[in-house]
Amino acid sequence: MEDFTSKLWAEKERINDLLEEAQLELMRLLDERSNLEGKIVRLQLDIKHMAAICGTTIEDPHKQLGVTGMIRWVLADNDGPLTIAEVENKLKTDFTFDPKDYKNSRSMIQTVVTRLIKAGDVEQNDRLVANRQKTEKAFQWIAKYKPDMPWERWAEESEIEELREELDK
């Protein structure tokens, strides 16, 4: 029995070490993600300015944002929890999202939200439905960072024209 107990304690110690390593790796990766987000923003600004210098029109990054990115932004930009139907409606109004492009758009949104929950960015916060005495599944952004949207720092056409005029002087 003593041999089993000592093995059990040794295994617990090994698992504690693995847990500590995993937590350190997570912290390192979160820092790395934060650094990457900063680099992305700086690169977007560089691209904007270089395009103005070259007189080149660049594609609107809003159109380049994937479904996961759009869902991240919708959840992060809202103060309270949203249902899948509300996420879908915001995707339609805030983005160029067309549910007809998907066999089952709400199922696809649910899958993305489930992945965001597993990543620790979103949590489920069920809420009471007014006048119906029942709750509905709702989801809320909880990550410490709010995702930067490419177009928040992207040049408007008027800004590009101003930069071109300054360069032509």
Describe the protein's topology.
Blueprint: H1 2-54, H2 67-77, H3 84-94, H4 105-118, E1 122-124, E2 127-129, E3 134-136, E4 139-141, H5 157-168
Antiparallel strand pairs: 1-4, 2-3
Uncertain stretches: none
Average pLDDT taken over every residue: 81
The biggest beta sheet is recorded as: 2 strands, antiparallel
User: Can you tell me the CATH topology of the largest domain?
Assistant: Arc Repressor Mutant, subunit A
Total beta-strand segments? 4
The proportion of strand residues reads: 5-15%
The CATH architecture term of the largest domain is Orthogonal Bundle
Distance from N terminus to C terminus (CA atoms, Å) equals: 87 Å
Main structural class = mainly alpha
Shape assignment: flat
Helix fraction, binned, reads: 55-70%
Counted up, domains total 2
CATH superfamily of the largest domain: Winged helix-like DNA-binding domain superfamily/Winged helix DNA-binding domain
Instruction: Going across the biggest sheet, name each strand in turn.
Output: 1-4
Note the run of SSEs as H and E.
HHHHEEEEH
Helix segment tally:
5
Query: How big is the Rg?
Result: 23 Å
What is the CATH C level class of the largest domain, in words?
Mainly Alpha
